[in-house]
């Protein structure tokens, strides 16, 4: 099968490329090598893969990339919360316009195959919560005044009771609460609109939870929290954990994420719609930081809980993984302890 991987030189995309080549697929990569994510061409690029170097927002680049392909893995995107709202134009350009440019090119060549989209758990906003009295409820975004007072946990919007977080399923309402989250949901909507208008085309939106592993970028705010902590340790600094460190997330290894993409491309029956890709075992951010510090070796700085917060962050979001198992045959294989030990010593990608 001929597969186009956008963002195929990046962290997740390069692992997807490896998995597809190992499967026997013929892979074409399109990548901008954005200076915010790369310091030139990374050393792990494969010689047995065709590369188209250019911007996904550029129509000419994309028309060079899409001919004669059978399937697409769309990984190209700006990720993370970034620095501040001044990043809004860049996020919308790379994520929304980049996706629109890809879909326009696919339309022009009459593409009717599988499209696998790298979506994200951020589209949910907060995860799923239960109130002892009102069952499943949707808490409002946490107020700045509450966060300033160190009141981290969301409360029931109806009775103000303490809530219990539970795994979030794919049919939960979407509620993006920062710019990055809004662009990821828009990517899902654009791809779904494309599939409706192109017979034979299906979209599998893989909602990645917190992905970590080798090839994450070093020392950049445009990265996951695992990479930020790992970069701090490599620089001899303590990982700085926001809030009280009790935020729960699902940390899933990049090799598992790559395998999920491979399964979506090659499933006997196309898997249409969103699917959570996660380990199924949540951990707190402080637990993750502590595991990285322990894995980094003797003398590594212990995490520091700062009490600071980022307004666009949510408190708890972790996944229900039944759909991934039933529809894709996917179950994570890399356990948290082994994965963090591996990542603590894995090479990071130079950005600048």
Which terms would index this structure?
single chain, 352 residues, alpha/beta, seven-stranded parallel beta sheet, three-stranded antiparallel beta sheet, 10 helices, 18% strand
Q: Can you offer a commentary on this structure?
A:
By secondary structure, this protein is of the alpha/beta class. Helices cover 33% and strands 18% of the residues. The protein has 10 helices and 16 strands. A 7-stranded parallel beta sheet has the order 3-2-1-4-5-9-14, with helices on both faces. It has a 3-stranded antiparallel beta sheet with strand order 7-6-8, with no helix packed on it. Helix 1 crosses helix 7, helix 3 packs parallel to helix 5 (179-197) and helix 6 (225-234) packs parallel to helix 8. The protein is globular.
Number of strands: 16
Shape: globular
Helical proportion? 25-40%
Please tell me the overall pLDDT.
94
**What is the assembly state of the chains in this entry?**
single chain
Question: What is the N-to-C order of secondary-structure elements (H for helix, E for strand)?
Answer: EHEEHEHEEEHEHEEHEEEHEEHEHH
Distance between the termini: 36 Å
Low-confidence stretches: none
Give a quick account of the main beta sheet: strands, pairing sense, barrel closure: 7 strands, parallel
Number of helices: 10
Strand order of the largest sheet: 3-2-1-4-5-9-14
Q: What fraction of the residues are assigned to beta strands by DSSP?
A: 15-25%
